[in-house]
Amino acid sequence: MKPKLHWSVKDSWRRMIESLAPIIQIVLGATAGYAIAHYGLGHEVPLLAVTVTITSLGFSRDARPKRVLETATGMVVGIALSEVLLGLLGPGMWQMSLTLLICLVSARFISGSATFALTVGLQAMLVQILPAPDGGVFIRSLDGLLGGLTALVVTALIPRDPRGLARTDASKLFDVFLDSLDALKLALRDVDLKMADETLKRVRRTQPLVDNWRMSLDSAISIARISPFLRKYRDELRGQVRLMRGMDLATRNLRVVVRRVDFLIRDAQPRPYLADLMEQIADATRVLARGLEEPEVLDDAQEMLVEIINQLDPKKHGIADQVREASVLLLLRPLLVDLLCASGMSEEDARAELPPV
Length: 357
Hints:
Helix content is 75%, strand content 0%. It is mainly α. It is elongated, with a radius of gyration of 27 Å.
């Protein structure tokens, strides 16, 4: 069967709205690159100043200056190397093929990035195929260098909203995490095996959400180092890194808990006390999620989590001799440690809160 194509106006609209910031950044950067090259340096057709700026900025979630610099460097290397070879070998089909071979081999020697090599090759071919501009050798290299510098300046002075993107990515992970806890509560209370199975499928797909959050945070921190407008948010972003790392580990442990619950409830016995624990964890996690924008509430989340972690002793629930049930309670212990670390507590202090078993 052929896979069904899925398209929705809602997804398209959301994608367009989320792309407005990079679109504006690219338009301003390309315009600035063209204006400087054309009016400032007198280049009649500064094509590469524009293309290098656009490609270096791009729509990638990874908007780190390092990534922008790597893309721009690849393009400038391809342009300059191709111009040197064009001067030495002249134009022609075999010269073009030899230039592409040399550029790709050189690019793979310079960098391990496949994208870098392809960027070098593409720019080299533009130089080989397009008519040479007026002004002599290396005019196109100068345009490419100008485009790369423009992209870096735009990244610093007209940054996208990396904090907003990081918060959006974080919210998506928290939504799935909380939905999974709510579903576990109902599955344990109502012995709903179908709901447990669906929750297991959902939490198995959470790693891309964590990866997106990590990447957007890395970009935000990198941009904040060079942007005068975002520098004041560096401490806030570092705090969010701690929150992200804790939630990453907690999400991994949640997958294990869901798998165990899915196995446990196959005996058709409700576990209201475990359902109550899931509800308590969800309530504390909701407060933890508020910490993205209200760091002061992290202390409240920490108090709630400490109260929960103190309950994670099978003897308190009279199930110390029931291995299947006790295993769920024991698996919740590392999850609570991770959530406490996300709230700002050290791992050593979090583990100290665990009741002895």
